[in-house]
């Protein structure tokens, strides 16, 4: 579009009706400059594929990729991961009853205990995730349904949330109602199961200490999310707002004991607000700090106590809890290693095949110039 | 010459199409001045113009209301209208509309994909950028208009009764304006007065069409005020003319005097806006069209737009993208509907419930916004930018730059660079394209006798070698040409010109000139006369002069006997020489001396024997022949003497002679030298008188004599310098006596003019003096120079008189030019009617294509009997020989008119000239009436050398798989000869001749040839129709079809064209001779449409314009024939050899670059869109994207725009030298051609 109006005639200078510019510039020779750029002699390189270049390249790629792949694969395999599905769809599941009797409005939570056994001890920090499947947190309208300036503590947005939040903008869905404090569908569907972990050893039931802070991104916690009017007296700050429809408690009671983890800067809330890209996802829930003298989670029997609040049956979802250690490459992910190994092997294989072909069928003295 | 044919064809076209199509109109010159017959019907309305300051003021006000003023406004916008108009213009582009549609769609809440504002960003960026560019351009135009409108011109003001300076913009229709030399004409002006006594004015139309040669304009004929300067107050005439139109070559109307007498007006009377007045001191004219109604402004059309084939294909691919987009969106919509049905009330769904169908519908539109990247709208922008880059590099290629002409390649069409890489058929003109179009007279045949001019031929050959060695030829060109501007400058110094630009322009001019149309290389000027012919001519002189009494009488009468002799002596101040002169003047003495000096009794004998009836007929023919060469043309003569003309050209005999000296300047002496040179050739140089030799030392030689001869003379006669003052009488008689040296007639007063500084050119500049001929066609130029070599010199042209020097009659003769019947299409000839200077009879001289003249001269008026038939036959034989040698042939004929006949014809002609309607037809008819019963005088052969590297280029192109056709207006033999020379025709090739007279014969012939081709050259399995065989001709000698114009006419008809095409496909090359411009374009059209191949047409002249316009790629060669071809071409190159690199390297590169770049563009878009699309499968087809929306919106505009551009401009698919060495690589392109 930029160039569409380019007018050849004007380039040569207004041909007609033009007095006296016919000779303009004629004094200068029209000879083009003899520069590398103008004569298109800039250095260029075009790879020409010959046996001499292709074979070593394949070998090198193979030899580099396979060890990397093996390294990645081993690392990934060393990561310990344990997954418990507590959805309670099957009748045998301890949470079956809770799942059946679910209602958003029930005030008392239904608790179920899921026992499990760790075969191996978990060393170093253990990350505890909850996982949901079939939950389309990436739905276009769902993703948009939030007000970032409200979450950032903006007072005007607090009172009149963005239109994006509709229909979770004001209580009753009416414009006249109170503004909902964390407005929008994302906040409204906050995961509200409470998970606790107990170690059963020798008949005693010891609670495993779960760290609930440090699970959110630093920037989220300190930059993106802020409580309106600072962290003191949130009750007052959130006055005149209404809690999201599905919530049991208002936002300023998410963690009443810790003012640094309450309101919008509650880390569970922050983690939830960072929407997942895929319909099956896991979100960090707690961190189990490693112990100095013993494995973080010794092998043995454990019990997961779930206060079952979050309904997933409506969308055929599943709920899981995942315990996992991490390594330098992150969580357990064997794919990368396998991919590296595969590519490396294919290259190596091809290299060998081509070498044989080259050796067998090439009858020319020089193999350097295969025409492209 | 070909361009004349072309003019005719154009006229026919115009008639056929009713003038519906607007094409570039041929700039008129003296040649085309008469225009073509039957162009347009006069649109019912006419314009009446009367003088604004004249007596009819009230009426003026009434009629001039709707006439535009002279202010021009080329800007598109004004301050107020800029935004709405610019926006409107921009939204006429589909791409912008699409963007707008997306933006609007995003504002629909249910569909909205991104934040509303984001989608607007790219659109706004693009709109603002373009608006900014437009505004800048417009502002530049505005400034330019302002300078133009505020230029000054002298307009007559009735209050002050004088011409006062006014701005251009204040000029109105009906104003009288006065212009001086070198001023630019501010409006279309009817020429009413010129300081030139013959009412002539010269203009240069370089600003209009790029042609730098001078064109003649004349004052409206029969103007009662002729002679004295016009008084606008008393201008009672009323002018009726056509409404404004854009035809530069036509202007019709009449002027009605107060006495109700009507005078026809035509193109010759109109000075066009933006041309420059040259060589004329003052002109006065009446403004007829002003401002935007001028022809120049009406012709101001934009650049040509051609759509390349790749672009057409691209459009189809974009359409596919649209289909893909829709199917993707549909998939998403259906998917979303189904997905939504699975859940009753998921926690993550937005509560408002819509039916899955409706939700799907919404998603469809959302997806269109989301996947908008797929439609590569910015691709069009990118392609344009890439093409600009490609053109930049093409224009900067040193290999396409010609040092000699200082011109590189001009890319006039900006968007078909890649078509250069797909050419399959190349149609080339011959003259000026394959050849130099530097016409040089080589030989002639007169009265059935051939004069081979062997020396001349040898000189040409020598010259050719010279040229190869010497690169600095342009220098001579330049110095040769700059004289004109010098003369003009000297004038404008004398008369302070008010022209705004005159001073600056002049300085630039000198540099500019060599590129102009008129070739004035030494090459064309110097013709070595044929000794045989010279002898005859000298005999002619001898007979006429030796005839004792008569000769002496003539001599005395010419010189004014005593008086002039006295004058001469007094001027010379040398009594002794006078004595010598008078003594030599005696007829007897001269005759004696003649015989003795010649040292050859035979020559005198021959002379006497030739005096016999038949011989005299031959001699007459010879004189007539050269007179015709000198007279029958449209050559404009200019020299440094021109300035004198305007000062003091009086109809007085003596003064005019003196002026002749002025023109000739000191070289008058060199004229004598010419005689000396001739003498040398005849073999009597040993006896050359000392005085001549002395003269030879004095002067700078430029006459027909060669340096060699001169030095001989000089060496043999180490001489006393006093001989210079020798009287001319003596000199003359000696010269005549010796060999009847031609040109002597003018000598008597030469010395005197030299002596007298009062005459114009005695300063040092006069040493440069030289006649400069300027003609539109190089042929004419060559002929005039040839005539000059035989001392039939065209000295000057002024109105209806030509100043000519003739060998037989001493002195400068004024030939009254009674009529010029300019060249045109149907006639293919040009004629002049003159009063013969010697016999005093009315003679019509005709010069034209041999076929036409031969036909017309079958039954001459003059009863010449068998002799004539024989002459005709012999001439025909010679013509055939010339054609075989690859010469261009022209025939010269004459007709002696009876006074009564002429008068009768004149009446008809006058009627035709003054008629406003059907003027052209009537003129044609009238001309044809006159040009009958011609007597053939002879024919000329003009050589036109091949351009350098033409054979190599053609060979390379053929190896590249391009079929080369040569379409020429020349004779078959000439064409075949040239084809051989340029390796179009190899030694093994078999020529298939197709000449036949009727349609049926043509049909049969085509079938015959076809079966012959099929039968011999190939095995059984070859397909006859269908896909193009790679190149069968590359095997043992291909076939070359040679077809002439008449056969082509048949072959192009609907029923036969299939066979013709089939045949030509089998041939390696095709030569079309004697083809008209219309046929050229028909052939191109036929091949292009029927075979659906990519065609390229290349040519240099106006006759190639239609062909260039029809072809996919039109290439013009900026050469000798003006600028029409260049103006209508897509690319203009200066030499044919440049085609090789242009096609093989740049074409190849541009095509591969652009094709790959487009693919690259599609690839990246489809890749990205696919990501987005597949993500829908895991996001419930909800239209969500996994990237930031900014990335999505600016993906094409910002984030991925540069790599394809760089690729498209800079990538080198294969190195240039490889492509040049292996033309075969080129053909791998079209095989994967887009269809």
Describe this structure in words.
The complex is a heterodimer of chains A (372) and B (1235). Chain A is α+β, with helices and mostly antiparallel strands and 372 residues long. Chain A has eleven helices and eight strands. Chain A has helices spanning 8-11, 51-78, 96-100, 140-144, 148-151, 155-159, 185-188, 218-224, 234-237, 267-273, 334-361; strands at residues 81-85, 110-118, 126-133, 194-201, 204-207, 281-288, 300-308, 318-325. In chain A, the strands form two sheets. A four-stranded antiparallel β-sheet of chain A has the order 1-8-3-6. A four-stranded antiparallel β-sheet of chain A has the order 2-7-4-5. Chain A is extended. Residues 1-27 and 366-372 of chain A have low confidence and may be disordered. In chain B, helix 8 runs antiparallel to helix 9 and helix 16 (531-546) crosses helix 21. Mean pLDDT of chain B is 70; it is low at 1-44, 466-521, 544-611, 640-769, 1017-1036 and 1229-1235. Chains A and B meet through helix 1 and helix 4 of A and helix 5, helix 6, helix 10, strand 14 and helix 14 of B.
How does the SSE layout of this entry go?
The complex is a heterodimer of chains A (372) and B (1235).
Chain A: H1 8-11, H2 51-78, E1 81-85, H3 96-100, E2 110-118, E3 126-133, H4 140-144, H5 148-151, H6 155-159, H7 185-188, E4 194-201, E5 204-207, H8 218-224, H9 234-237, H10 267-273, E6 281-288, E7 300-308, E8 318-325, H11 334-361
Antiparallel strand pairs in A: 1-8, 2-7, 3-6, 3-8, 4-5, 4-7
Chain B: H1 2-17, E1 46-50, H2 57-63, H3 82-90, H4 94-106, H5 116-149, E2 152-157, E3 162-167, E4 176-180, E5 188-194, E6 200-204, H6 206-209, E7 214-218, E8 238-242, E9 253-256, E10 262-265, E11 270-271, E12 276-278, E13 282-289, H7 295-298, H8 309-342, H9 356-370, H10 377-395, E14 410-411, E15 425-429, E16 440-446, E17 449-451, H11 454-469, H12 473-481, H13 483-494, H14 502-512, H15 522-525, H16 531-546, H17 548-559, H18 561-572, H19 575-585, H20 587-598, H21 601-610, H22 613-631, E18 636-638, H23 642-648, H24 653-664, H25 668-682, H26 690-698, H27 707-716, H28 728-739, H29 750-755, E19 772-774, H30 778-789, E20 793-798, E21 801-805, E22 812-821, E23 829-835, E24 842-848, H31 850-856, H32 865-884, E25 888-897, H33 899-914, H34 919-930, E26 935-943, H35 950-959, E27 963-967, H36 972-981, E28 990-994, H37 999-1017, E29 1039-1044, H38 1045-1051, H39 1054-1066, E30 1069-1073, H40 1077-1090, E31 1095-1099, H41 1105-1110, E32 1113-1117, H42 1124-1127, E33 1131-1133, H43 1138-1178, H44 1189-1193, H45 1195-1199, H46 1202-1210, H47 1216-1221, ...
Parallel strand pairs in B: 15-27, 15-31, 27-30, 28-29, 29-30, 31-32, 32-33
Antiparallel strand pairs in B: 1-8, 2-3, 2-4, 4-13, 5-11, 5-13, 6-7, 6-12, 8-9, 9-10, 14-33, 16-17, 16-26, 18-19, 20-21, 21-22, 22-23, 23-24, 24-25, 25-26
Helix pairs in contact in B: 3-5, 4-5, 4-9, 8-9, 8-43, 10-43, 10-46, 13-14, 16-21, 17-18, 18-19, 19-28, 20-28, 22-30, 23-24, 25-26, 25-27, 25-28, 26-27, 32-36, 33-34, 35-43, 37-39, 43-46
């Amino acid at each position: 579009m930029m160039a569409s109006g380019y007018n050849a005639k004007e380039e040569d200078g207004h041909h007609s009706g033009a007095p006296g510019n016919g000779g303009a510039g004629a004094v200068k020779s029209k000879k083009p400059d003899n520069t590398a750029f103008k004569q298109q002699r800039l250095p260029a390189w075009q790879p020409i594929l010959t046996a001499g270049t292709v074979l070593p390249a394949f070998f090198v790629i193979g030899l580099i990729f396979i060890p990397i792949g093996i390294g990645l694969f081993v690392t990934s395999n060393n990561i310990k991961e344990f997954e418990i599905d507590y959805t309670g769809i099957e009748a045998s599941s301890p949470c079956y009853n809770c799942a059946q009797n679910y209602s958003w409005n029930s005030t008392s939570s239904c608790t179920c205990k899921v026992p499990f056994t760790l075969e191996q001890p978990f060393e170093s920090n253990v990350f505890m995730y909850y996982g949901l499947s079939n939950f389309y947190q990436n739905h276009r309208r769902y993703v948009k349904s939030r007000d970032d300036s409200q979450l950032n503590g903006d007072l005007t947005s607090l009172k009149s949330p963005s239109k994006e939040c509709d229909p979770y903008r004001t209580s009753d869905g009416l414009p006249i109602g109170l503004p909902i404090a964390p407005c929008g569908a994302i906040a409204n569907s906050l995961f509200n199961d409470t998970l606790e972990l107990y170690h059963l050893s020798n008949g005693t039931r010891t609670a495993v200490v779960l760290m609930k802070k440090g699970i959110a991104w630093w920037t989220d916690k300190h930059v993106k999310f802020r409580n309106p009017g600072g962290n003191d007296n949130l009750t007052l700050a959130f006055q005149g707002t209404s809690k999201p429809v599905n919530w049991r408690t208002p936002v300023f009671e998410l963690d009443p004991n810790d003012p640094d983890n309450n309101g919008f800067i509650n880390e569970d809330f922050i983690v939830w607000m960072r929407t997942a890209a895929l319909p099956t996802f896991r979100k960090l829930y707690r961190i189990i700090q490693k112990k100095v003298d013993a494995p973080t989670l010794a092998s043995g029997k454990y019990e997961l106590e779930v206060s079952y609040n979050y309904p997933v049956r409506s969308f055929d979802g599943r709920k899981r809890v995942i315990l996992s250690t991490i390594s330098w490459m992150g969580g357990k992910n064997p794919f990368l290693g396998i991919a590296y190994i595969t590519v490396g092997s294919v290259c190596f294989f091809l290299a060998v095949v081509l070498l044989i072909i080259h050796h067998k069928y090439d009858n020319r003295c020089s193999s350097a110039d295969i025409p492209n | 010459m070909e361009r004349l044919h072309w003019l005719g064809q154009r006229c026919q076209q115009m008639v056929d199409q009713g003038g519906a199509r607007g094409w570039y109109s041929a700039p008129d010159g003296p040649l085309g001045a008469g225009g073509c017959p039957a162009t347009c019907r006069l649109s019912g309305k006419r314009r009446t113009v009367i003088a604004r300051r004249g007596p009819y003021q009230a009426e003026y006000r009434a009629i001039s209301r709707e006439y535009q003023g002279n202010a021009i406004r080329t800007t598109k916008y004004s301050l107020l209208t800029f935004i709405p108009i610019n926006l409107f213009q921009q939204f006429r582009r589909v791409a912008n509309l699409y963007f707008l549609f997306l933006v609007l769609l995003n504002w629909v809440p249910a569909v909205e994909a991104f934040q509303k504002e984001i989608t607007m960003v790219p659109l706004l960026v693009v709109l603002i950028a373009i608006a900014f560019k437009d505004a800048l351009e417009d502002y530049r135009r505005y400034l330019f208009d302002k300078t133009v409108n505020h230029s000054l011109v002298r307009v007559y003001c009735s209050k002050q009764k004088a011409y006062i300076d006014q701005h251009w913009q204040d000029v109105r229709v009906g104003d009288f304006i006065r212009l001086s030399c070198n001023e630019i004409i501010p409006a279309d002006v009817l020429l009413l007065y010129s300081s030139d006594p013959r009412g002539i004015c010269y203009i240069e139309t370089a600003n209009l069409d790029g042609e730098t040669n001078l064109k003649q304009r004349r004052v409206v004929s029969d103007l009662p005020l002729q002679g004295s300067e016009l008084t606008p107050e008393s201008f009672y005439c009323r002018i009726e003319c056509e409404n404004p139109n854009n035809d530069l070559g036509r202007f019709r109307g009449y002027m009605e005097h107060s006495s109700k007498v009507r005078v026809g007006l035509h193109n010759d009377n109109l000075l066009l806006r933006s041309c420059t007045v040259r060589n004329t001191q003052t002109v006065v004219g009446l403004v007829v069209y002003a401002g935007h109604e001028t022809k120049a402004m009406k012709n101001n059309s934009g650049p040509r737009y051609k759509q390349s084939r790749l672009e057409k294909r691209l459009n189809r691919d974009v359409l596919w993208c649209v289909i893909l987009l829709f199917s993707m969106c549909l998939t998403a919509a259906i998917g979303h509907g189904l997905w939504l049905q699975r859940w009753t009330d998921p926690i993550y769904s937005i509560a408002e419930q819509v039916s899955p169908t409706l939700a799907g519908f919404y998603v469809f539109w959302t997806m269109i916004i989301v996947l908008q990247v797929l439609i590569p709208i910015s691709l069009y922008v990118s392609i344009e930018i890439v093409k600009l880059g490609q053109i930049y590099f093409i224009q900067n290629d040193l290999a396409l730059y010609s040092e000699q002409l200082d011109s590189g390649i001009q890319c006039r069409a900006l968007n078909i660079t890649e078509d250069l890489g797909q050419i399959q058929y190349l149609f080339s003109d011959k003259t000026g394209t394959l050849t130099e179009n530097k016409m040089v007279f080589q030989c002639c045949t007169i009265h059935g006798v051939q004069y081979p001019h062997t020396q001349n031929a040898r000189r040409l050959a020598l010259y050719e070698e010279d040229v190869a060695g010497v690169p600095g030829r342009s220098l001579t060109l330049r110095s040769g040409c700059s004289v004109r501007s010098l003369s003009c400058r000297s004038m404008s110094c004398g008369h302070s010109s008010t022209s705004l630009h005159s001073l600056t322009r002049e300085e630039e001019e000198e540099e500019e000139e060599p590129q102009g149309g008129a070739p004035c290389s030494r090459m064309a000027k110097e013709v070595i006369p044929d000794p045989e012919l010279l002898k005859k001519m000298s005999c002619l002189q001898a007979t006429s002069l030796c005839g004792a009494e008569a000769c002496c009488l003539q001599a005395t009468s010419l010189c004014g006997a005593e008086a002039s002799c006295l004058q001469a002596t007094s001027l010379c101040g040398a009594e002794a020489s006078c004595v010598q002169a008078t003594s030599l003047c005696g007829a007897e003495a001269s005759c004696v001396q003649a015989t003795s000096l010649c040292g050859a009794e035979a020559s005198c004998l021959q002379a006497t024997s030739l005096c016999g009836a038949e011989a005299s007929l031959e001699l007459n023919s010879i004189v007539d022949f050269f007179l015709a060469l000198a007279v029958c043309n449209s050559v404009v003569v200019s020299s440094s003497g021109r300035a004198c003309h305007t000062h003091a050209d009086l109809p007085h005999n003596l003064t005019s002679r003196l002026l002749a000296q002025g023109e000739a300047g000191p070289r008058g002496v060199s004229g004598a030298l010419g005689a000396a040179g001739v003498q040398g050739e005849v073999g009597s140089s040993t006896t050359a008188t000392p005085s001549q030799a002395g003269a030879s030392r004095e002067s700078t030689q430029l006459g027909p004599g060669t340096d060699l001869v001169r030095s001989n003379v000089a060496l043999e006669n180490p001489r006393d310098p006093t001989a210079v003052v020798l009287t001319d009488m003596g000199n003359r008689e000696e010269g005549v006596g010796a060999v009847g040296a031609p040109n002597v007639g003018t000598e008597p007063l030469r010395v005197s003019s030299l002596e007298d500084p009062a005459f114009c050119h005695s300063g040092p500049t006069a040493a440069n003096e030289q006649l400069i001929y300027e003609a539109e066609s190089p042929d004419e130029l060559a002929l005039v120079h040839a005539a000059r070599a035989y001392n039939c010199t065209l000295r000057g042209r002024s109105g209806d008189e030509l100043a000519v020097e003739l060998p037989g009659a001493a002195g400068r003769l004024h030939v009254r030019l009674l009529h010029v019947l300019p060249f045109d299409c149907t006639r293919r000839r040009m004629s002049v009617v003159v009063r013969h200077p010697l016999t005093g009879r009315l003679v019509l001289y005709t010069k034209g294509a041999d076929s036409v003249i031969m036909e017309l001269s079958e039954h001459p008026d003059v009863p010449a009997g068998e002799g004539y038939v024989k002459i005709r036959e012999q001439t025909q034989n010679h013509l055939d020989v010339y054609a075989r040698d690859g010469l261009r042939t022209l025939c010269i004929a004459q007709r002696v008119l009876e006074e009564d006949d002429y008068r009768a014809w004149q009446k008809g002609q006058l009627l035709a000239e003054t008629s406003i309607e059907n003027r052209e037809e009537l003129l044609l008819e009238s001309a044809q009436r006159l040009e009958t019963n011609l007597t053939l005088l002879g024919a000329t052969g003009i050589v036109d050398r091949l351009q350098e590297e033409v054979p190599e280029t053609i060979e390379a192109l053929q190896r590249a798989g391009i079929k080369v056709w040569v379409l020429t207006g020349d004779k078959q033999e000439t064409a075949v000869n040239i084809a051989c020379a340029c390796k179009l025709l190899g030694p093994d090739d078999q020529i298939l001749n197709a000449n036949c007279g009727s349609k049926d014969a043509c049909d049969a012939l085509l079938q015959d040839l076809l079966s012959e081709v099929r039968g011999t050259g190939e095995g059984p399995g070859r397909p006859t129709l269908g896909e193009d065989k790679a190149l069968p001709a590359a095997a043992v000698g291909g076939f070359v079809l040679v077809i002439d114009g008449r056969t082509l006419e048949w072959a192009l008809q609907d029923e036969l064209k299939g066979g013709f095409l089939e045949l030509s496909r089998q041939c390696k090359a095709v030569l079309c001779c004697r083809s008209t411009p219309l046929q050229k374009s028909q052939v191109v059209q036929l091949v292009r449409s029927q075979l659906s191949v990519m065609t390229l047409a290349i040519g240099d002249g106006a006759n190639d314009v239609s062909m260039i316009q029809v072809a996919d790629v039109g290439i013009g060669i900026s050469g000798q024939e003006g600028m029409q071809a260049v103006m209508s071409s897509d690319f203009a190159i200066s030499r044919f050899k440049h085609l090789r690199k242009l096609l093989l390297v740049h074409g190849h590169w541009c095509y591969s670059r652009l094709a790959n770049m487009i693919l690259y563009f599609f690839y990246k878009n489809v890749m990205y869109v696919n990501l987005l699309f597949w993500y829908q499968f895991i996001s419930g087809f909800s239209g969500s994207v996994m990237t930031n929306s900014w990335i999505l919106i600016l993906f094409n505009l910002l984030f991925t725009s540069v790599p394809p551009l760089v690729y498209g401009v800079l990538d080198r698919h294969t190195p240039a030298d490889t492509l040049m060495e292996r033309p075969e690589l080129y053909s791998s392109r079209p095989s994967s051609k887009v269809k």
